[in-house]
Amino acid sequence: QVQLVESGGGLVQPGGSLRLSCAASRIIFRTHDMSWYRQAPGKERELVAFIGKDGSTIYADSVKGRFTISRDNAKDTVFLQMNSLKPEDTAVYYCNCAGVAWGQGTQVTVSS
């Protein structure tokens, strides 16, 4: 069974940056598409960024130009670099593998 463990969340001021990490195990990581989702209180879970096994990327319009998804296949890890953070980015961020497996989530709070 796939295991995904997120880290890197926390409290940051508006305009600040955070880097999320998601370490995968029990899969052949390089052969799987990976994504980051987020869920704010009272809202549905939404796709933030996707990276294919070929390195192709897709971003939600709300984060384009501010967030960057990347992967390190040697370390079985996917990253989400978040810059110019806004209060509306506050949410629990989840790592997803191939649309099936989920991590436990990491809280990101953007507040002054």
Describe the structure.
It is a single chain. The protein contains no helices and eleven strands. It is globular and about 40 Å long. The mean pLDDT is 96. It has 112 residues and is an all-beta fold. The strands form two sheets. Strands 2, 4, 5, 6, 9, 10 and 11 form a seven-stranded mixed beta sheet that branches. A hairpin with a 3-residue loop joins strand 9 and strand 10.
Key terms:
51% strand, mainly beta, 7-stranded mixed β-sheet, 112 residues
Give the class from helix and strand content and strand pairing.
mainly beta
Mean model confidence by pLDDT = 96
Low-confidence stretches: none
Count of alpha and pi helical runs: 0
Binned strand content:
over 45%
Distance N terminus to C terminus? 40 Å
The SSE order reads: EEEEEEEEEEE
The beta-strand count equals 11
Q: Describe the biggest sheet?
A: 7 strands, mixed
Radius of gyration equals: 13 Å
Helical residues, percent? under 10%
Shape: globular
Could you give a short description of this structure?
The chain has 112 residues and is mainly β.
Topology diagram in text:
Elements: E1 3-7, E2 10-12, E3 18-25, E4 34-39, E5 46-51, E6 57-59, E7 67-72, E8 77-82, E9 91-97, E10 101-102, E11 106-110
Parallel strand pairs: 2-11
Antiparallel strand pairs: 1-3, 3-8, 4-5, 4-9, 5-6, 7-8, 9-10, 9-11
